[in-house]
Amino acid sequence: MRQQIKRWLVILMSLIMLLPLGGCWDTFEPERMVYAYGMAVDYKKGQYIAYLQMINLGLLAKTEVSGGNSEENVEVGRATGKTVDQAIFNLYGSAQRRIFWGHLSYLILTEEALKSDGIKSVVDLLDRYRETRYRIWFYATKDSLSEILLNTPILGMSSALSRISDPKATFQQNSFIQPINMREVLISIDEPVHEASLPVITITKENWMTQKKPHESLKIEGIAVVKRNRLKGFVMGSQANGLRWMNKKMKRSNLTVKDNPKNIDVLVTNLKVKVKPVIRNKNIQFDVKVKADSVIDHVEQNFNRITLATKIEEKIKKEIMETYLYGLSIDADLYRLTEVLYRKNVRVWKMVQHQGKVPLKKDSLRNIQVKIDVIHGEKQRDKPTL
Hints:
Oligomer: single chain
Order of helices and strands: HEEHEHEEHHEHHHEEEHEEEHHHE
Number of strands: 13
Strand content: 25-35%
Mean pLDDT: 87
Shape: globular
Helix content: 25-40%
């Protein structure tokens, strides 16, 4: 009898020990799934149009080793629905394998989608789904979504290394428009002034070419200013130049100044920005102090170092003011001056704010001080190399 009980105990213990081994029964093998890497949303005739960019991650390692790959590594799916979620489920109907969302890298919204609560709908969907993360980069565009999603980087690189899936790589070299991810979008819209600035993507054929034809490439051309449920407007090209000088995360940027009759190119680095609210009763103004270093990139004639610094300071001050005034024309607080007041003096902010925003006028930027230190290295002398 005792031996029979021991036998049953051994069998029971063996079964108990086997239970943890069943923990992976509900998983999916990586090679049996497809991976959503990019998503885009359009809106036409009362219907949302969802696009999904699928990439072959198996080709990524081959591309890194060989420096290029002729195999097709991108496919784009498209479906419509009354909501973004419905459009995605309509796309599932033609999917050949399970779609994994954990590698979703970026989201693009068209002008029409932004005007029709598109950002509100998509953010709510992505925020609730368990596989997506807050590191998804957000963009806006006026161009064709299918052309953007099918675009491939130069030299046959994987789309996982494109400008929009890895924007920090190019921002380190030329800090024009700062990339923004979903976490930052949520913060920007929930905090005063309840606006977020999405980088705007355009397609250009002018900059790169292959041996056979021009190579279409993606370019960040400006920003789209959005609130929770609507689009305020676009700030494009030179209109957005002032943004870089008010961005504390700016790494480096180029500037060209006129020194009659020639031009001088300088590289501006080590930017420091301070914004201070000046309060007089209910009249709120802001003082801006910008300090940076500049290195001479190109010079064609002898120059005076002090005069050059003054010219750089004047141009930066002009660009800051021009961008600020353009922001006022679309009722946008591009420099988030409202948030500065909220952080510095919440009591006054409560007195003057309307729907979270401080009323801004042309003279609300009371004083802009720019201090540039022209740094000389071994070859950056006061005269041309030749």
